[in-house]
Amino acid sequence: MSGNDDQILEYEIQPAAYRPYDPRSPEVAERLIAIITAQMPEAQVEHIGSTAVPNCDGKGVIDLMLLYQPGQLETAKTAVDGLGFQKWEGRDAFPDTRPVRLGSIMHDGTLFRIHVHLLACDADEVARQRLFRDRLRADPALVEGYVARKRAILADGITYGPDYATAKDEFIAGAVEL
Fold first, then answer.
1. How far apart are the C-alpha atoms of 56 and 21, rounded to whole Å?
2. Number of domains within the chain
3. I need a labelling partner for 54 at 20 to 30 A (CA). Which of 10, 28, 60, 135 fits?
4. How far is CA 5 from CA 12, 32, 49, 65, 131, in A?
């Protein structure tokens, strides 16, 4: 695909809501990884979050982790910004020293929202993100518990994205410490 097919579109902030796992998510992630690494070949980009785990329902946002070499944060921001990703702004936005860029892409007739987490390859968070994803991939019971936790958060009326994420922290910490 080329041209406008790979255009990163404007991100629309929406309340957290339950969405069943979309089996197209890995394909969308691979497409995005190819787009980003074409712009920044020295970066390593990985699919993380619920959409990286088969049958893990969630918000339906494709989370990617762009790993850059120490000292290359500005290069990484310039690369993703140049693709059309937008800076997350607002009271609960990630700091620009640990940025998240937002965007959307049309795939197979569906608009997929995207979060690109920019992290130094030696950041402690990298291992934690991988460990949580990989533990979920290896343990269907853990996936079931995680989905139940997310449904309970939403049932409690927590739909503001950053609050929803914070409400999952205890579960994630427990899963990583297994």
1. 6
2. 1
3. 10
4. 19, 11, 24, 22, 33
Helix (H, G, I), strand (E, B) or coil at 83: coil
* CATH number of domain containing 126: 3.30.460.10
Q: How far from 37 is each of 34, 44, 51, CA to CA, in Å? A: 5, 7, 20
Contact indicator for 64, 96 with CB cutoff of 8 Å:
no
pLDDT in tens, 7-53: 999 999 999 999 999 999 999 999 999 999 999 999 999 999 999 99
**Domain containing 139: what range?**
3-176
The reported pLDDT for the residue numbered 1 is: 38
One-letter amino acid of 175? A
> Is the distance from CB of 11 to CB of 86 less than 8 angstroms?
yes
Is the pTM higher than 0.90? The answer reads yes
